[in-house]
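Morning run. Coffee first, then this:
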Amino acid sequence: MLTALLHGILLAFGLIIPLGAQNVFVFNQGAAQHKFRGVIPVLLTASLCDTLLILLAVLGVSIVVLSIPILQTSLFAIGLVFLLYMGFSIWNSSPANLQQPESRMTPKKQILFAMSVSLLNPHAILDTIGVIGTSSLAYAGTEKVLFTIACIVTSWIWFLGLAIAGKVVGHFDAQGKLLKLINKVSAIIIWMVALYIASQLYQML
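And here it is:
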């Protein structure tokens, strides 16, 4: 049982830690919100979306979905559009005006963006299925439950840490100079992910 628990923790960290669109968005919102409670919508949405993906991977449901060519192609196309849009939004944001309420995302927009980078990111979904879903096959019963819980809890802790780190950076960067640079780098990373997805979509077509 301990092996399954440790396996789930290490595996989840290995998949979540790399700087991707989802991590970038959670960090940026942590930095942009005036108070920590302002980032709670994106924090909960990203965590719940990851929980859903992990459960689907362990249950094997998502494998069935991605085995249908038209659904897989549609997922990649929609994901590409959302990532491009998100990249432009972050690139054009103005961290220097973070103290102004209108410069921060509303809870509704946070949730929609968080869902898009979590559930419409084919690369993340395929990683979840290929790694967590496949690894879960080594366990059964209580061990599989512990493995799944370990992955989910690790995901929640990581997103909480990202939001807190973003808040700390935002607090010490009153003029928004560092955040402006971070936004530019974040947008470029997101566009790189979009480019990768575009290449995979091209191969499908």
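Residues 2-204 form one domain. Good start to the day.
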